[in-house]
Write a structure and sequence with these properties.
single chain; alpha+beta; 4-stranded mixed β-sheet; 4 helices; 42% helix
């Protein structure tokens, strides 16, 4: 079915849509923290790069990356429609992630990135080990 809007109007309409964050994945990680007895974290702190969680005393920034938006090597695939736009968009997300990681490391932070698919129930034992390793590194 053809679009009812012109290309310019569709662009304007889509630009007005704002994301609501990745609340579902963040809540899943919070539940994991609580189940595993991991304490000392803060959600949405005022730190460069806007990490999802930090452990301030340990200077650990934790990001929960969605498989699509952050180009997961296992699950991300480029949409068929408007491929050049999505390629640019996902590449710019990747560049921004690398810049944020580098900047935080130069400021003395440890950075841990967790993929959305790692929050699955089958990773219930693996992910806490990875978190604890990062916490005590």
């Amino acid at each position: 079915m053809p679009d009812v809007f012109t290309k310019a109007k569709r662009s304007q309409v889509m630009s007005r849509i704002r994301g609501r964050g990745n609340k579902e994945t963040e809540v899943a990680l919070m539940r994991l923290f609580r189940r595993q007895g991991i304490t000392g974290w803060q959600r949405h702190p005022p730190v460069f790069g806007r990490p999802d969680f930090i452990f301030h005393k340990l200077k650990l920034a934790v990001f929960v990356d969605g498989c699509f938006w952050h180009n997961c090597p296992k699950h991300s695939n480029l949409p068929v429609n408007n491929r050049p736009f999505w390629k640019r968009k996902l590449e710019s997300n990747d560049r921004r992630d690398r810049l944020v990681g580098r900047t935080l490391r130069t400021r003395g932070w440890h950075v841990l990135r967790i993929w959305q698919h790692e929050l699955a129930f089958r990773n219930e034992t693996r992910l806490p080990r990875r978190l604890k390793r990062a916490l005590w590194a």
